[in-house]
Amino acid sequence: EVQLVESGGGLIQPGGSLRLSCAASGFSVSDKYMNWVRQAPGKGLEWVSILYSAESTDHADSVRGRFTISRDISKNTVYLQMSRLRVEDTAIYYCARDLASRGNYQNYGMDVWGQGTTVIVSS
Amino acid sequence: EIVLTQSPGTLSLSPGERATLSCRASQSVSSRYLAWYRQKPGQAPRLLIYGVSSRAPDTPDRFTGSGSGTDFTLTISNLEPEDFAVYYCQQYGSSLYTFGQGTSLEIK
After folding, report:
1. pLDDT above 90 (res B49)
2. Cβ(A1)–Cβ(A110) under 8 Å?
3. Burial profile A49-75: b = 16 or more Cβ within 10 angstroms, e = fewer
4. For chain A, what is the mean pLDDT?
5. Phi first, then psi: what are they for A87, rounded to 5°?
6. Which of B6, B92, B103 is the best residue to mutate to test the A interface, defined by the most A CB atoms within 10 Å of its own CB?
7. A56, A79, B23, B64: least CB-packed within 10 angstroms?
8. In the sheet where A77-82 sits, what is the strand order?
């Protein structure tokens, strides 16, 4: 069964750091592009980061320079390292598998989602 | 950055009716990169439609995606109780994704 399970969320003070994990099963994270998407309380969806390969990533302007997406193929896990956290980073963070992969750009979208992990940034 | 604007913000209909949801982009979107999601309360989003009109596995055929350029539509015919949720359109372009703000489909 294809599945994503996020962990690592919690309560953190402004300016702090946190690392989220997304453990994948049923496929290899090296075979697909991977994303993080967040949802602030009562708000819509906001794309955060995409991992194309170990050497190629991209981030939304709102987190660029503060967040880093990466992966550990041996653990089949994707990470989101978050630093210099702000109150406005408070959200549920979802990990999502992309339809696209290296060599297959026919479609983009997110076909598998985790259940999310909650990050609260507050003093 | 391409901005997606969804309308209406809220749509009130009864089971069995047809829903028409709109998604308008600030610039032309590649048809291959336009998707629709449904999110029920307390759940993660679920992919319904990708590539404007291709149904994801397990998406019922009462869901139909259409459109091109800057105007896209999700039509849901014969609404069922599980369809009352929030719907988001999404596009990929210039190495980033953007989502619309969502349309809430509620029971009348």
Report:
1. yes
2. no
3. bbbbeeeebbbbeebeeebbbebeeee
4. 96
5. -55, -35
6. B92
7. A56
8. A3-7, A18-25, A77-82, A67-72
Distances (CA, A) of B85 to A65, B26, B80: 35, 25, 11
Q: Which residues pair with A69 in a beta bridge?
A: A80
Distance from CA of A13 to the nearest CA of B (A): 25
pLDDT above 90 for A106: no
What is the overall mean pLDDT for chain B? 96
B67 touches chain A (CB under 8 A): no
pLDDT tens figures, A49-105:
999 988 899 999 999 999 999 999 999 999 999 999 999 999 999 999 999 888 888
Q: Cβ contacts (< 8 Å) between A35 and chain B: which residues?
A: 97
Residue A102 pLDDT: 87
Instruction: Answer yes or no: do A35 and B97 touch at CB < 8 A.
Output: yes
| Token digits of residue B27 | 């610039």
Q: Does A47 touch chain B (CB under 8 A)?
A: yes
